Amino acid sequence: MNLPFPAIFIIFIISIPSSIAGAGVDAVSRLIETQDRERAPPSVQEAAARGVLLRLLPSLSSSFHFQIISKEYMIEGTTGVDIVSGLHWYLKHWCGSHISWDKTGGSQLFSVPNAGFLPRVPHSGGVSVQRPIPWSYYQNAVTSSYSFAWWDWERWEKEIDWMALQGVNLPLAFTGQEAIWRKVFQEKFNMSISDLDDFFGGPAFLAWSRMGNLHGWGGPLPQSWFDNQLILQKKILARMYELGMTPVLPAFSGNVPAALKYIFPSAKITRLGNWFSVKNDLKWCCTYLLDATDSLFIEIGKAFIEKQLQGGQSCWHSKMLREIDLY
């Protein structure tokens, strides 16, 4: 490879651990093959990786060469995430830098030399760094309300950069799902806006309304929230796909608006017990759960996933009943 500048050669190889491969887990292999087929083209992932470097260390934007090539040959990285995490590996182990969240030190890059003075990796064939597992999963169902509730695109872009630098390739992407739910329930299941105003919680409490802990608390959500969060989610997903990540999108868990019980009176819908934080007040507590054996469960779940599939390939996450009595 002829480069216009002296290369600091780092090979970042991703492989399935021998323990997994040897076990012959066909489902895992098929999923990885599907992800490989459906990821953004290498040129898009390389450009996204260069974007991370430009935001992180703009003065060194021409000092690194990122390349994704076939896994059949010697490689620099198999996805955009892998080459960005390879950059992080070099900055950490050869430049003594530290990249973390702002609250835990932030990006400490003062030890990184200027362009032209970066330390060389003293191995003619580069350094091979293997991922110990196929996927690095990130977040949980309540992170969106503990940390992300008020984030704008600038803050999300910074977080996605951090994910890529840390090698995260399977992040939750829950932003804006209320806009999807509203479309599904209105268009497919004849619900009104007022029915759904009582269903969704306020912005800082969405995680708990999604899991069936409460309903309506802190709401109703204004139209501007639905619109802006959906726009934000599209940006989040676009960047994740560009970097070769597989976003984990929300799936249906059975939590339904109260009005569904009256629209579908024969459906197996149960009113749940109280969650300790809302003191048995029926205005906020005791949400409704649709039985997973009911055919309506499959119908709603399918409609919700199909509405999201317009974005690209994903995995799915369903979470229900956190700290709550079933009856």
Automatic annotation (TrEMBL):
Domain of life: Eukaryota
Keyword tags: Hydrolase, Signal
Name by which UniProt lists this protein: Alpha-N-acetylglucosaminidase tim-barrel domain-containing protein
Signal peptide positions on this chain: 1-22
Alphabetized GO MF terms: hydrolase activity
Keyword Signal (UniProt): yes
Domain Alpha-N-acetylglucosaminidase N-terminal: 47-119
Domain Alpha-N-acetylglucosaminidase tim-barrel: start-end pairs: 137-310
